[in-house]
Amino acid sequence: MNSINIDQDSRGQGRGYSYEVLHQPSFSLAVLQLEAEQSIQAEAGAMVSMSANVELQSQMKGGIFGAIKRAAGGESAFISTFTARGGPGEVTLAPGAPGDVAGIELSGQPFFVQSSSYLAGDSSLSVDTKWGGAKSFFSGEGLFVLMVQGQGLLLVSSFGAIHRKRLQPGERYVVDTGHLVAWEGTTQYTLRKAASGFFRSMMSGEGIVAEFTGPGELLIQTRNLAALAGLLKPFFPSQGSGGGGFNFNLGG
Residue 153 sits in which domain range? Predict the structure, then answer.
């Protein structure tokens, strides 16, 4: 059974570039060395730094319709292309949240990525936004996923560490959609409520989950950004509060 081809030493070579991931696993930084006139594509806003001779171009990937689909999926409507002009150049990329970055070598197979986990990839890769399933419509999460195809490097990011789960043929496994990073495109999955019945699902504290059926491998992030936002919400003033500052209740 095949598994996801992750560069175990966090470094690798591509067509006209090399890369290395530093400061893992909590504050990962992807460092890419581009050969002259070579390019890499990345999610808009992922750039940390770059050589002065690297040209940055932002465009609507897939035209107007593609940009609308990307925006609907929670991504930026634009994608950034970095090209080294007149000589080699360096680009460093990082996700918005603390966590890990993994380099995956694609060899033509379809691959699904949670929209917030796409960081960068070979400029030859096809990245398309796909409908995640009708059952996710009312969940507010997992509505769209990215289908990545082609050959070359794909960089994905996680909030927290990346946990690999390999499924045997026929094995069923359930993952909260807020913890999904990526999975093989050949792995079957359905979306459903975490618990049977609306009231039970609400009381469980869980929302929509994905149920996978093996064979295949999943990449799972150990932390959930939406859950963190929920924990922090009581410490921030509501829009209707009279005061402009924080309202901490320290007891006493």
Answer: 11-228
Report the number of distinct structural domains present in the chain: 1
102 or 140: which leads in pLDDT: 102
- Tell me if 92 sits within 8 A of 55, measured CB to CB: no
Q: Out of 22-36, 43-57, 141-155, which region has the weakest mean confidence (pLDDT)? A: 141-155
Q: Which residues pair with 55 in a beta bridge?
A: 83
Structure tokens belonging to residue 28: 């990962």
Global pTM exceeds 0.85: no
Q: Is residue 243 part of a domain?
A: no
Q: Is the distance from CB of 163 to CB of 222 less than 8 angstroms?
A: yes
Measured CA to CA, the distance from residue 193 to residue 214 in angstroms comes to 20
Length of the chain: 252
